Amino acid sequence: MPRALITGITGQDGLYLSELLLAKGYEVYGLIRGQNNPKQAVVERIVPDVQLISGDLTDLPSLQRAMGEARPDEVYNLGAISYVAYSWDNPAVTTQVTGQGVLNMLEATRTYAGDDVSSVRFYQASSSEMFGKAQEVPQRETTLLWPRSPYAVAKVFGHYLTINYRESYGMHATCGMLFNHESPRRGAEFVTRKVCMAAARISLGLQDSLGLGNLEARRDWGFAGDYVEAMWRMLQQPQPDNYVIATGVTHSIRDLLDVAFDAVGIEDWTPYVRHDESQIRPAEVDHLIGDASKAQEVLGWTPTVTFEELVQMMVAAELDELAVTRSLVE
Ligand code: NDP
Ligand code: GDR
Which residues line ligand 2 (CB under 6 A)? Predict the structure, then answer.
C-alpha cells in the first residue's frame, strides 16, 4: 500500500487530494497545526481514514518527526498562507510559512530519504500568481516569473528551491504551477466562494448586499477536484518536472456575478453589489491565462468542469447548506 504525507490537509486541496489517494488505496497522513485546530473536526468528518500528525511548516523538528511517523512514498506540500491579500498585511509570516516552509519540507524529505533520495517523491504547490505581471500570454512552464505580492514572491522562492533540490540532490521533486481552482470547499475569503455564498443568501433574503473590489479582474478558474488529479499524475511520472495546470479560459468578476446570480434566479446583480475599497490590492496581476498543453501531452490531463458548471455547483452547495441550517433551526 503506497503511503502519502499531505501538508495543508485542512485546506480545500488537502481534502480533495485525500479523497483521491484513499480511493486509490493509499495510506494517507495529514499534517495538522495548532494545539486545537478547529478544522480537525472537518477533516475527521470528510476523510476519517486520514491519519493526522501534529506539526507546523515553520518547525523543522516537527516535520522531521512527521516524516518518521508517516514514512511516505509521496509528499504533497500543499500547506501555505494562501490568501494573496493577507500577504501584504502579514508579509513576514507569509514568507516564513509559504517560502521558508518549503525549505523545511524539502530538508525533512531529503534527510528522511537518506542515500536513496529519489525514493520519496515530492510535490510543491506552485502558483500562477508567480507569473504576476505576465511577460507572455498564455503562460507556460518557461514563462519568466514576475511576482506581484509577498505571497507570490514566497511561492517563487519555493518553486526555485524545489527545482534546486531536484538538480542539486537528484530528488524526485515536482512543481505544479496551478492556476485558480475552486469548489464548494473553497475558503470564504476567496472571491468565487464569497460571491456564491452571497448570491444564495441574498436570494433567500438573508443578506442585503455584497462588497467587492476590482470587478474587472480576470482569472483562469477550474475545479479543484480536477486539479488534485493532476498533482497525483505528476508524481507518477518517472522524471520530476514542472507543469502548468489551467483551463486556458478566463472570466472576469462580472462574469462570476452573472453566473452566480443567474443560478438563483436574479437577472440583475447591480443593485446588490457595492464597491469595497478595502478589497483593492496594492498591486494586481495582469492577464493570467494558462497553457496546459504540456500537462495534456505528458500527463493526459484535461479539465472536466466548465466555469459555468463550477459556479453553478458552488451556488447549489450554498443553497443546500442553508437549507440544512434552516431545517435545524426550525
Ligand atoms: P487553503 O488556504 O485552503 O489551505 C492552506 C492549508 O495550509 C491549510 O490546511 C492550512 O492549515 C495550512 N497551513 C497554513 N499555515 C500552516 C503552517 N504554518 N503549518 C502547516 N500548515 C499550514 O489552500 P488551497 O487548498 O486552496 O491550496 C493548497 C496549496 O496550493 C497552497 O499552497 C496554495 O498556495 C496553492 N495554490 C492554490 C491555488 C488555488 O487556486 N486554490 C492555486 C495555486 C496554488 P490551517 O487550516 O491550520 O490554517
Ligand atoms: P487570487 O484569489 O488572489 O487569485 O489567489 P482571490 O479569489 O482572492 O482573488 C481573485 C481576484 O478577485 C478580485 N476581487 C476580490 N477578491 C477577494 N478575495 N475578495 C473580494 O472582495 C474581491 N473583489 C475583487 C481580486 O482582486 C483578485 O484579482 C488564489 C489563491 O488560491 C492563491 O493561493 C493561488 O495561488 C491563486 O489563486 C492562483
Answer: 82, 84-85, 127-129, 179-180, 189-191, 194, 212-214, 217, 219, 253, 279, 281, 284
Task: Return the closest-CA partner of residue 212 out of 247, 180, 262, 260.
Answer: 260
| Architecture category of domain 3-182+221-245 in CATH | 3-Layer(aba) Sandwich (3.40)
Return the sign of the alpha-carbon dihedral for residues 167, 168, 170, 174: negative
Q: What is the assigned CATH class of domain 191-219+250-285+305-329?
A: alpha beta
| Rounded CA separation 190/195 (Å) | 9
Angstrom distances, CA of residue 308 to CA of 190, 223, 260, 313, 315 = 17, 11, 9, 9, 11
Choice among 27, 29, 112, 129 that is catalytic: 129
C-alpha dihedral (302, 304, 308, 309), degrees to nearest 10: -160
Distance, in Å, from the CA atom of 102 to the CA atom of 105, rounded to the nearest integer, reads 5
| pLDDT, tens only, 191-243 | 999 999 999 999 999 999 999 999 999 999 999 999 999 999 999 999 999 99
- Mean pLDDT value across the chain: 97
**Which residue shows C-alpha cell 444564495?**
200
The string over 239-255, giving b where at least 16 C-beta atoms fall within 10 Å of a residue's C-beta and e elsewhere, is ebbbbbbbbbebbebeb
Domain locations in the chain as residue ranges:
3-182+221-245, 191-219+250-285+305-329
Of 111, 141, 101, 126, the closest CA to residue 176 belongs to 126
